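Q: Could you fold this chain for me?
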Amino acid sequence: MIKMNSKNKETLVCALGGLGEVGKNMYVVMHEEELFIIDCGVMFPEDDLMGIDYVLADYNVLKTMQDKIKGLIITHGHEDHIGGIPFLLQNIEIPVIYTPNIAGKLIRNKLEERNIKIPKMIPVNEDLHIKTKYFNIEFFTTTHSIPDSFGMAIKTPNGTIVETGDFKFDLTPIGPVANMGKMAAIGNEGVTLLLSDSTNALVPGFSASESVVDEALGEIFAENTTSRIILATFASNIYRLTHIVETCKENNRKIVVFGRSMNTSIEIAKECGYIKDRDIFISSDEANRMEPSKVCLLCTGSQGEPLAALSRIANGNDRNITLMKDDTVIFSSSPIPGNAMSINRIINKLYLKGAKVYTNTSEYDVHTSGHAKQEELKLLLRLIRPKYFMPMHGEYRMLASHTDLGVLCDIPRENTFICKNGDILALKDGEVYRKGSIPINDIYVDGSRIGDVGVSIIKDRKIMSTDGVLIVILNLDLKNKKMLIDPNITTRGFVVVNDNQELIKKIQDKTNIITLNELEKDNFNLTDLKNRIILEINSYVIELTGRRPIIIPMILSI
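A: Sure. Below is the predicted structure, expressed as structure tokens.
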């Protein structure tokens, strides 16, 4: 097992996930026998990862350093920062989780659902100081699309590291304003290394305020006073949910909640006091008896997820709600990379059934990102004024663009690091330098199986999805070394057997030759026979058809 070695009194920084990608954020800071983990997220698979439910950061290196782990620190409650915790805790013992309030409640729900023991949890706020032998960690409030979001300053024997978490600067937010004063004070004390969110590093300007979204939603509600409104957004965007509730209240509409994650977020928002009007929520049965103009359906599915509430409604598969011809549907979100096609399919279905659809456009700002754009990233760089800079949380092009912004803000290019997952930076006496890397591989979750599905299985699934499976069934008399009947050739996803008898006969004859040749050998064994069938039938099928189905020999012997 590969180890990170903190020698010569160096402080080490390494990303186990979150670099070169948007998702599965997980970072490690280590000094000698002390190690802190920052965030533990998931990434949702794209279409090429067939059958995979989640992609996790590679936490295997932590198994070798179990005794060094002092805690897991959470910056905020989004899935790409907390979604991997249930899987981590099944493999690694975490003594304490330091977590903001909302994130803590979401984590508890996840662990209780899976019957996983909940470790000690300490709430994160600006008054919290984590002090150990080598570390002194303090927190500052940031603005993001979920309440209780924080960045942190990690003071080490070799300098101060600032990790921003996800952030933006919103001067008229729904929640608290980012604590720029504390950021500036940390910057004045001197910051050795900055790790900063790069998600919107390619986007010029300032991000729109959440209050602008509030106004846009108000306008749409005012323009559609006679129709039922269906509103899809991210369940985790509790600030958005809060002002959706207020907008419905102002427009005399009751709310029906659809989607498990949406229900969870609404309950947490009520519990934490972000939503105070509990009477505004009604059941789907009550909604079906009311005038459409008095109802708003609040649901998941803004990313076109096939099993989410909006997809069920659009497909006519929801047991409780049927789409009406004059419904107004609002996508209060922006597409996550890779989801645009799924969203467009849902929008087309909604239009076909007569619904009126609003998406985020220049005319209607029904969504704003929770991530800082270029001018906000520059502001953060000027507040923190780091000596060294490692952009994080983003695809390579985002990291590269963020690096250029750092150079524009007077950080020497030689003091910047575009890293990949597994790369290690070392801090020593106020200087930062590269210190090798550890091999990192994605961990796939397939149903209840964690890490059992590897690259080779994904490759086989892709082949089966495009070229299918060809199964060769043999019946052998091993004692007399002869075939009892001709080989049986069947396929799935390759060709229709009844329509391709000539091809099937050629494969059958080729299998006959291979089998008889193997049976004549003095050292005959079934393993060699199977391998020869796979290799030679594979080449033969490619020659005949140009396709590469998975070849599966099945040998029945007596």
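A (continued): DSSP finds 15 helices and 27 strands in the chain.
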